[in-house]
Amino acid sequence: MALYEHVVIARQDISPQQAEALNDTLKALIEAGGGSVAKIEYWGLRNLTYRIKKNRKGHYSLLALNAPSDAVKEMERQLSINEDVLRYLTVRVEELDLELSPVLARRDRDRDRGERPSRGYDELAV
């Protein structure tokens, strides 16, 4: 079996619980196809760089998969039918990274320090 990283962007109109349910559905599809899901990360509602189907935001999720290619193809087929899914991308990798992704690691670091996330520019002093 091959190793994959899969990212899904769902519409902003759905609730976080519905986005989690979509992740559970994808996990069930992979397991039914003989694969396994090593990690699921829900990144939350994030801004899109550009509009996709009139949406400015999307619910992002990352899945680390160990699955046969037929199971991945079936999952992608189901995603292409689902109206709640804006985009998805599956990439084959050499090994799965089971640590916290940089997106969640940065969010946790900022939360631990009690700081707001950086906006990428310095505040101007008056």
Explain how this protein is built.
The chain is of the alpha+beta class. The protein is 33% helix and 39% strand. The chain has three helices and four strands. A four-stranded antiparallel sheet has the order 2-3-1-4, with helices on one face. The model has no long low-confidence stretch (mean pLDDT 87).
Short characterization:
The protein has 126 residues and is of the alpha+beta class. It has helices spanning 16-32, 69-81, 102-113, and strands at 2-11, 36-52, 55-67, 85-93.
User: Based on DSSP secondary structure assignment, what is the total number of beta strands?
Assistant: 4
Radius of gyration: 17 Å
Distance, first to last CA: 60 Å
Mean pLDDT: 87
Query: Which overall shape is indicated by the principal axes computed on the Cα atoms?
Result: globular
Structural class: alpha+beta
- Outline the low-pLDDT stretches: none
Order of helices and strands: EHEEHEH
Largest sheet: 4 strands, antiparallel
Strand order of the largest sheet: 2-3-1-4
Query: Tally the helices: what do you get?
Result: 3
- The residue fraction in helices comes out at 25-40%
Q: Approximately how much beta-strand content do the residues carry?
A: 35-45%
